């Protein structure tokens, strides 16, 4: 088997020079590097990646957890993440938690055992902040709060709510139906709302909207909840009825169609719907079918019924009409997640080096906590992309 010594002999250089060139750990003159690369090609020498990673204390492998790859939003985010991780010299190992029951715990175990350099958590977790902060390895959260020391990246959902609310209110809507995740996740709602999100409970708090909205929308571990809370309060302040239909499991894409059917069954007088792309597309399809079957009584889009999709994936363009959407910039989110991960890995290595230096110097074995990446959530702006489903 060809090794570095064989390459060194063929290139006429020392073993240490070949090691520097192969591992990229020191300066090697271009002419010397060219001779080494030529020798490697002649001998068909392939560097041992495992040995290189052990030497560097790196695997260049990043775990990514998402609820499911079957959902277009997470599929598109995953594609962007893989591309930008690759550009940063990192590889992605994906876990769809809906399809891998113990995926999260297995990935955390791999991280603790140095089999990964870091994990991006984009799936729901029941673990408390103390658990995540106690792991002591690079972790970055997407669209969720894992703890004060865990960096997080998410869309600016409060801005997204303002964009959608303004579009509806300026066009004079009177009854909006939201489709979203389970209300059980809204575990830290203000007293202004009840568990079922009924119109009456929200409307009764309209007088207090201006005073408490800023505090309430930030008092949650689920940033997406901020979009719903802000949107509902703006509707309530304007006297617009707002009802809610829940999709209990994001990993079951058939539930989005059922939610759309429930909206049309329960709220035939609604003149506006805001929903995730999949549900919004089903709503458009149902409205077009309703109009085809009952031309005189069916609701026309956008004259009688306006629909906004919240996500802005390509699904919003495939429903028969281009759906007006609040667009989340998934590419910008992926870029920011990778930036945060690189920072977290650098901090982790700096902390490890400092600990090693303390041990060599005869330190008492107590090291300072690693420098944390800023704990605040990085907000990525959203945009309203107008289509054919709003006035």
UniProtKB/TrEMBL annotation:
Alphabetic keyword roster: DNA-binding, Repressor, Transcription, Transcription regulation
GO molecular function, one term: transcription cis-regulatory region binding
Domain called HTH lacI-type: residue spans: 2-56
Name of the protein in its database record: LacI-type transcriptional regulator
Species of the source: Bifidobacterium callimiconis
């Amino acid at each position: 088997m060809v090794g570095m010594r064989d390459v060194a002999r063929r290139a006429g250089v020392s073993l240490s020079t070949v090691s520097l060139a192969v591992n990229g750990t020191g300066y090697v003159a271009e002419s010397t590097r060219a001779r080494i690369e030529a020798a490697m090609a002649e001998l068909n020498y392939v560097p041992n990646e495992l040995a290189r990673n052990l030497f560097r204390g790196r695997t260049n492998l990043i775990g990514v957890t998402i609820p499911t790859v079957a959902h277009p939003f997470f599929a598109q985010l995953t594609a962007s993440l893989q591309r930008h991780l690759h550009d940063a010299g990192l590889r992605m190992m994906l876990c769809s938690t809906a399809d891998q029951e113990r995926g999260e715990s297995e990935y955390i175990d791999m991280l603790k055992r140095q089999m990964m350099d870091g994990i991006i958590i984009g799936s729901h977790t029941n673990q408390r902040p103390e658990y995540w902060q106690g792991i002591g390895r690079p972790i970055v959260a997407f669209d969720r709060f894992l703890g004060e020391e865990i960096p997080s990246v998410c869309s600016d959902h409060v801005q997204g709510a303002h964009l959608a609310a303004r579009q509806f209110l300026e066009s004079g809507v009177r009854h909006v139906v939201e489709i979203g995740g389970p209300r059980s996740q809204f575990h830290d709602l203000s007293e202004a709302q009840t568990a079922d999100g009924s119109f009456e409970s929200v409307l009764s708090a309209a007088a207090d909207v201006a005073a408490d909205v800023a505090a309430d929308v930030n008092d949650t571990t689920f940033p997406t909840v901020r979009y719903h809370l802000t949107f509902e309060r703006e509707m309530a302040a304007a006297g617009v009825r707002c009802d809610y239909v829940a999709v209990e499991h994001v990993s079951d894409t058939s539930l989005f169609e059922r939610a759309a059917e429930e909206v049309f069954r329960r709220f035939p007088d609604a003149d506006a719907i805001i929903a995730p792309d999949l549900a919004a597309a089903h709503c458009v399809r149902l409205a077009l079918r309703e109009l085809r079957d009952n031309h005189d009584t069916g609701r026309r889009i956008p004259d009688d019924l306006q629909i906004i999709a919240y996500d802005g994936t390509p699904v919003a363009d495939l429903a028969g009409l281009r759906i007006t959407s609040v667009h989340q910039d998934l590419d910008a989110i992926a870029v920011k997640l990778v930036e945060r991960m690189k920072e977290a890995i650098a901090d982790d290595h700096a902390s490890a080096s400092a600990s090693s230096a303390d041990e060599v110097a005869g330190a008492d074995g107590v090291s300072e906590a690693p420098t944390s990446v800023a704990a605040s959530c990085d907000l990525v702006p959203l945009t309203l992309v107008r289509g054919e489903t709003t006035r």
